[in-house]
């Protein structure tokens, strides 16, 4: 899981639940919130979420200078092999299109197997 926390006081619930939801959405995975029975039997605070939930994942990309440098390296290389990890999640078609364009074989790291392997 991306987030694992135990509520030890009912007053923690709104903040911990919001944090758990944000981690699950932002990191695209599981959040776990545990609550002992004695805490669960106490009244919940009448408090709403303090901040709006962010429901879209942020776009993370290298800077323009880094992209330009990579393009020059690919253009100048005799051969290129793409070695892909979990950062390729959700970008299988784009990786394969790029590999075909530069005539590159594609390998994968252990955490990239589910995103690349199935039809490479």
Automatic annotation (TrEMBL):
A Pfam cross-reference name: TPP_enzyme_M
Cited InterPro entries: DHS-like_NAD/FAD-binding_dom, POXB-like, THDP-binding, Thiamin_PyroP_enz_cen_dom
UniProt keyword annotations, A-Z: Pyruvate, Ubiquinone
A GO MF term: magnesium ion binding
SUPFAM superfamilies: DHS-like NAD/FAD-binding domain, Thiamin diphosphate-binding fold (THDP-binding)
Transmembrane segments: none
Domain Thiamine pyrophosphate enzyme central per the UniProt entry, residue ranges: 67-120
PANTHER family in the cross-refs: PYRUVATE DEHYDROGENASE [UBIQUINONE] (PTHR42981:SF2)
The protein's name in its UniProt record: Ubiquinone-dependent pyruvate dehydrogenase
């Amino acid at each position: 899981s991306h987030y694992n926390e135990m509520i030890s006081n009912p007053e923690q619930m709104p903040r911990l639940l919001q944090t758990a939801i944000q981690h699950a959405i932002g990191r695209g995975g599981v959040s776990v919130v545990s609550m002992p029975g004695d805490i669960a039997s106490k009244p919940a605070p009448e408090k709403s979420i303090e901040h709006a939930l962010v429901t879209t994942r942020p776009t993370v990309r290298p800077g323009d200078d880094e992209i330009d440098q990579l393009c020059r390296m690919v253009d100048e290389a005799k051969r290129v092999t793409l070695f892909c990890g979990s950062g390729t999640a959700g970008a299988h078609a784009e990786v394969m299109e790029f590999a075909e364009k530069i005539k590159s074989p594609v390998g994968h790291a252990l955490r990239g197997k589910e995103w690349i392997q199935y039809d490479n």
